[in-house]
Amino acid sequence: MSVTSVTSLTSRLRRSPRGPSRLRGARLPRRLSQLGVGLALYGASDALLVRGGLGLEPWGVLHQGLSELTGLTMGRVSIVVGALVLLLWIPMRQRPGFGTVCNVFVVGIAMDATLAAVPDGRGLPVRVALLLGGVVLNAIATGLYISARFGPGPRDGLMTGLHRRTGRSIRLVRTVIEVAVVVAGFVLGGSVGVGTVLYAVAIGPLAQFFLRVFAIPGAPARSAAVAAGSPAGAILRP
Prior knowledge:
- Helix 3 packs parallel to helix 9, helix 4 (74-87) packs antiparallel against helix 6 and helix 7 (124-148) runs parallel beside helix 10 (194-213).
- The chain has ten helices and no strands.
- 73% of the residues lie in helices and 0% in strands.
- The protein starts with a helix and ends in a 25-residue tail after the last helix.
């Protein structure tokens, strides 16, 4: 859809007070479906990266390190970390959405289910395939759940809250947080490797593409998972 078409549609909805609510109601089943599928695929994509054994995405490194330390499954660690990060929203006066709460649980449950179903990759070709599949699936999942606009994930809210409180750019805040979790996770035994680098380089462009693919016209902007502007402004994580 062109910019002109979007502008025209927005103008018509603003002139009709009943238009937006009707549109949002009609889109609700699709938004709920995208949220659920997106979060489940996100957990599955993290599991594929684990089975590939070539390096995880930043928060995955921390989850794996804590899993090694505590003996809990990575999915359970993800749920606990998500809940603890959500508590940090309170002093920053961040308000969670429906998707935020779903995020805490669905990603971890899907991760453990996939880890139980998919064995470790044997041989470099299989491990590379798992890595590439994990990165692409992660981008698809990101496009699905962010476009549903039910609120950011716990880690997203931490980033956007610090951005608001400190006045620092989203890019800087995200970089500091992700470097910190990678270092902490690596020290605890998390996997850092070529997959970590590939993820960092590829996830932005891929997720931007899938955000356009799965965009839902008329979804309420107030619950967007991006701190400022449209989803094109930043790629955030569950």
